[in-house]
Amino acid sequence: MALVGKKAPLFKTGAVINGEEIVEDFSLEQYIGKKNVLFFFYPKDFTFVCPTEIHAFQEKLAEFEKRDTVVVGCSTDTEETHLAWLTTAKDNGGIEGVTYALVADVAKTVAMNYGVLGGEYSFDAVTRTWSFSGAPIAYRGTFLIDKEGIVRHESINDFPLGRNIDEALRIIDAQLHVEKFGEVCPANWEEGDKAMTATQEGVADYFSKN
Q1: 50 belongs to the catalytic site
Q2: Which domain, by its residues, includes 178?
């Protein structure tokens, strides 16, 4: 079920912050009322597409910060595995130099609550046992959470499909424009483009100039 327009599921779990420190009680709640959050899931540490995305977010971190937005990553790996990967050199497949928080969703409850877990649990009433079908890791989910804790955008990619970091920035720009001006953003809108009012007159005016 889509989370857009709803309160983002909160959690408290382990994470690595600043690329070097393990904390046991990390929560997105600390940002409510203060920052927007770009919260993204990736499948697994020490893999292939994942480090390209994680480094790409880091390279654009200043752009997110200019938009009053913090970046937080999450996978179902442990804090210790996150830390090991964070201290492995980039040219050796690591993500050394990444400074934003990486959440450890070992119980898989965060991924389940956000609807990005690559499989599901089922209970056999006869044998009274639980089983899991699918992949027990997260799809490439991306969620924009505003300062009030409301999800304003979500997208989910399959495991092989890396996401576009510039598109994440474009979505944030659009949301900030809506908040500031009360206008809506048409297809392919980018910062600096003309937006429009959510009226028939606004639509007519937009198309008359495009």
Answers
A1: yes
A2: 165-210
Mark whether 189 and 96 lie in a shared domain.
no
Total domains in the chain come to: 2
137's CB contacts (< 8 A; 6+ apart) are: 43, 44, 75, 76, 111, 117, 118, 159
User: What does pTM read for this prediction?
Assistant: 0.95
Q: What is the pLDDT of residue 203?
A: 86
The residue from 32, 38, 50, 104 that is catalytic is 50
174-195 per-residue burial string, b: 16 or more CB within 10 A, e: under 16: bbbbeeeeebbbbeebeeeeeb
For residue 183, what pLDDT is reported? 95
Residues 85 and 19: their CA atoms lie apart, in Å, by: 10
Residue 58 pLDDT greater than 80, yes or no: yes
CB 162 within 8 Å of CB 62: no
- Within a domain: residue 4? no
Residues 87 and 159 in one domain: yes
- At residue 16, φ and ψ (nearest 5 deg) are -110, 130
Nearest to 76 by CA among 119, 23, 117, 38: 117
Tell me what pLDDT residue 208 has: 86
